[in-house]
Design a protein that fits this description.
Layout: E1 6-10, H1 15-31, E2 34-42, H2 48-71, E3 75-84, H3 86-96, E4 101-105, H4 119-127, E5 132-135, E6 145-149, H5 154-170, E7 173-180, H6 183-187, H7 195-213, E8 223-229, H8 232-243, E9 247-251, H9 257-263, H10 266-273, E10 277-281, H11 298-310, H12 314-327, H13 332-344, H14 348-376
Parallel strand pairs: 1-2, 1-4, 2-3, 4-5, 6-7, 6-9, 7-8, 9-10
Antiparallel strand pairs: 5-10
Helix pairs in contact: 3-4, 8-10, 11-12, 11-13, 12-13, 13-14
């Protein structure tokens, strides 16, 4: 099961990077991931001798990081020691090696910087199309509370799907939030729209919120839903603090172009001041199903589906069992497990159909075995009395 196949862990050997390494280990163990490690020596160095000394020292530090990860029975792939712009090299390596997820520490703030997020982490989140998980210094690898703000966009849909999977994997509570932004907040003064119309709009947004959530399966995840009014980034930050959130999962493109013009990017404002670890998603999912079982090996394919169900990924398990049936439509274990997955998803009609199909295949197999046994105990005599 490769839900997060490859992780690129970017380290600068700070305390925040140590916290990020512990989170990397935890995630890699949960999702059976391969970890690639990168360190970027920033800037240009006129002295080759000095650069070689830095590389030698850094190489030893990278080897220590590799050893710590391996000690936890996590597979380590390539290790990269490069020079240049840190955020640029991290993004390039993530794209070239097609990783599922970049994990890095929040970094060190510049002196007198108002924002909590380091410069490199902030730039990687803005520039990378890959999902980015930024870990705050001293953040424990145990995730207990997850917050996912949504605005009904495709980006927030992707964020919520991943938030559900992560909450399930960490057995964490999930809070789903939407913020209704009134014209009073948009224009910095009293609302130019009558209160009745504002209230009607708010009720419409609340209805859209519930309708949006109907498309998601929150199986085995404790979920709290909340609708707030105000400036989105302020309400999100306040909720993070009040809720004592361990992880924020957020899409990086909002619904409204008007909102971005008036208030700037909500994602950028939130992530700059975020008090906890954060996962940002753009065009790709952090957790995406990789059907890697050899199509000729139906037993391996079945085993992958069972692993997915054990982890709570029932929708993905359905896809895997259907792949088994693409190989052999009469494969009874796939029908049986498909029935279980559908039942857990609350699709009783589909589950019952699969149970009937499984029963039919068991009966078909029994008939074949009986026929084979009869044949093995009988000698067929030809027309002229000779044995065949």
């Amino acid at each position: 099961m490769k839900l997060i196949k490859k992780i690129l862990f970017a380290t600068d050997f700070t305390n925040a990077s140590d916290s990020a390494m512990q989170m990397t280990i935890e995630i890699a163990k949960k999702f059976e991931s391969e970890v690639m490690v990168i360190h970027v020596i920033p800037g240009a160095h006129k002295s080759k001798h000095r650069l070689e000394k830095i590389k030698e020292f850094t190489k030893n530090s990278l080897i220590k990081v590799q050893g710590k990860i391996k000690e936890n029975n996590v597979r380590v792939g390539e290790i990269f020691l490069v020079t240049g712009s840190p955020f640029d090299q991290i993004v390039k390596h993530a794209n070239f090696y097609d990783v599922n997820l970049i994990i890095m520490g929040s970094g060190e703030k510049e002196k007198d910087d108002h924002f909590r997020l380091g410069l490199t982490a902030s730039k990687v989140m803005r520039k990378s199309n890959k999902p980015v998980w930024v870990v705050k210094q001293e953040a424990p690898p145990l995730i207990k509370k997850v917050l996912c703000p949504i605005d009904f966009s495709e980006a927030s849909k992707r964020a919520l799907e991943n938030a559900i999977h992560l909450a399930e994997s960490f057995k964490a509570e999930l809070k789903v939030l939407t913020v209704i932004q009134s014209t009073e907040h948009d224009y910095g003064g009293p609302s130019v729209i009558p209160y009745e119309e504002e209230d009607t709009y708010a009720k419409h947004e609340e209805s859209q919120f519930e309708k949006f959530l109907e498309n998601f399966d929150f199986y085995d995840v404790k979920v709290e839903r909340e609708v707030l009014r105000g400036k989105p980034y302020k309400e999100i930050l306040k909720t993070l603090s009040d809720h004592k959130t361990d992880l924020l999962v957020i899409g990086s493109i909002g619904k409204s172009a008007l909102t971005r013009v008036l208030a700037g990017s909500v994602m950028e404002k939130v992530t700059r001041e975020v008090p906890c670890s954060v996962v940002t998603l753009k065009s790709e999912d952090a957790i995406r199903l990789r059907l890697e079982a050899d199509k000729e090996n139906i037993e391996e394919c079945l085993a992958e589906g069972k692993k997915l169900m054990e982890k709570g990924f029932d929708k993905e398990a359905v896809t895997q069992f259907k792949q088994c049936l693409d190989i052999d439509l009469y494969f009874e274990p796939a029908w049986e497990n498909l029935a279980i997955a559908y039942q857990r998803l609350g699709k009783e009609d589909e589950a019952e159909n699969c149970r009937r199909e499984a029963k039919e295949q068991r009966h078909r197999l029994w008939e074949r075995r009986v026929e084979a046994e009869i044949r093995s105990h009988n000698v067929v005599i030809g027309k002229h009395g000779s044995l065949k």
